[in-house]
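The records we work with from here on pair a chain with its fold. These numbers are not coordinates but entries in a learned vocabulary of local backbone shapes. To see the layout at work, look at the sequence and tokens printed below.

. . .
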Amino acid sequence: MSLTHEDADENPYLREPPTDFQPVEELSAEDAREQVELLREAIREHDRRYYVENDPIIADRTYDALFSRLQALEDAFDLSHPDSPTRSVGGEPIDAFETVEHVAPMLSIDQSGEETDVREFDDRVRREVGAVDYVCEPKFDGVSMEFVYEDGSLERAVTRGDGREGDDVTRNARTIGSVPQQLHGDHPDFLAVRGEVYMPKDAFQEHNRERIERGEEPFANPRNATAGTIRQLDPSVVAERPLQVFYFDVLESSEPFDSHSDALERFPEWGLRVTEHVERAADIDAAIDYRDRMLELRDDLNYEIDGTVIKVDDREAREELGRTARHDRYAFAYKFPARAEVTPIVDVAVQVGRTGRLTPVALLEPVDVGGVTVSRASLHNPEEIAEKNVDVGDTVRVQRAGDVIPYVEEVVEKGAENEPESHYELPDHCPVCGSAVERDGPIAFCTGGLACDAQLRRSIEYYAGDDGLDLEGLGEKSVRQLVDAGLLESVADLYELEREDLTALEGWGATSAENLLHELEESREPPLSDFLSALGIPHVGPTTARELAREFGTFEAFREAAENEPERLEEVDDVGETVADQIHEFFTSEANAEAVDAILEHVSPQESALESGGDELEGLTFVFTGSLEGVTRGEAQETVEAHGGSATSSVSGNTDYLVVGENPGQTKRDDAAANDVPMVDEDEFRELLAEYGVDLE
């Protein structure tokens, strides 16, 4: 039950809780058990007041002290329980979700953005059951879920799935603050309710800002962020993300309700959070008026809605109206028009690139641009920001360059708090590492180099990526994990990794560790062109790297020219004065020179064999995975290219053959199967080359 003011005398943790706790080791088991029950009861009440009533009675730091005390007691006396508030911090990851059947179908509802369709719904309702009252609610744009309570305790939480069954995500749901583990008050013995899990808009923008600054791909909109979070296999990840829930319907109950509005009025008594924007409507005109008012209010809400829902209030009339195979016939969704092209800038995040370049990214209220929901747009550089006079709070027009990359085209209206000529200024220090920011014309750079985690991660990702040495075991997620674990502080540290370092990390088994170490060993003698591309030299991608390798033959000769004779670089195809200057600056940078020297302690780039041998393989594209016996993979790629063929790093519909060596990666084989690309082993590859008159030796 909910605690009352009088309960404060019996439960000292309700109001002005003590902060001088008796040391845990001095408590008896009985005293600890009693204190745990009081703490759980008080914390549940504080949760209800915070999430449901929006009326907390203690400070956040006091709540944190109570929570920490409960955790300490549960750990010390082995008193953990599934219903404890401490379960909100997550738990051990799971392998997969179990599929379970809903206690009642979770059907969709008919919907339209046209008023005539809404009135036709009302006509049908009045024909079949007579005049009714409606309940109007926002149509939340989140993830719908079933929450089942037995004897007041959360038994399970299940995603909607196909409406008949869904994924059991109970352990994730327990981490959400507005999901009560135990119902309050005089609740039904059995209660299954439908709720909408969502990410508040301000929390979504902050979460996206953090993802961008960490070098991660941001979510497209709050719904995608919510859906991606609720199905995480690691509950601790869910616990770190700011999800909330609104409850809006009864699926099944051991106690009957005469009306939908009666149920919603009872929800807060039990600790179930309901939006304040629920209204009764005496007729369809009032329901339409409600929708129009919510459309005007839409941008002021801290959660996304894409319309309103009109529901028959009387539950007996609902049953009489029934349902189709797809949707309940007692409700109708009156949709809002999509936001189109014009939207406000909520914030600006700063993305730090591999070379340290700072790119400002506008975080937007999600808007429809050409049929695609856009929640971020590039601002390119400080010069463009100043030219367009863009600032946080401004309403802007968003376009998509080539129908792909969103960008801010113009400011439509200055924010109410902004001066007419005010615009956003990049920070003086890097948002990731705090190093000073320097300007080079219209471009801003972080000066932290590889000491900046963002640059370090991207440098390693690029070195190991498709345009680098193509190390399949090192993707964005694994690189971030290794950097966060302190195992990688430079690219060269890749070659210091040991099996025990990897298997000690979550998600790494003996096989994946051995595969990565094998790939790293194979990469110690890379083709010169691959190595040059992998270093991440500005403007030196795979194509330019091949031309440089063909021209200079060895890394030593190339580096000598880069450091001391940059004019020689301009003799190479694809290298003009600007690119030559960039290469020269890269190698004369003390930090870059030290990083390259450290890599060369482990890696010996091969002399280039990129001399034209003919066009026998012209028109053929090969991709390689795994190691070859007679030659290195790099030598095989160079042979293909020297005879007019293409050797690319990823499989696509344009690939002619995937050459599969020892210890191959699974991703490329899966891509080959999906694109009907033939897979050949080393012997078959040699035979194929021989048919074209090409010798691999």
User: Anything to note?
Assistant: Residues 621-691 form a domain with the Rossmann fold fold (CATH 3.40.50.10190).
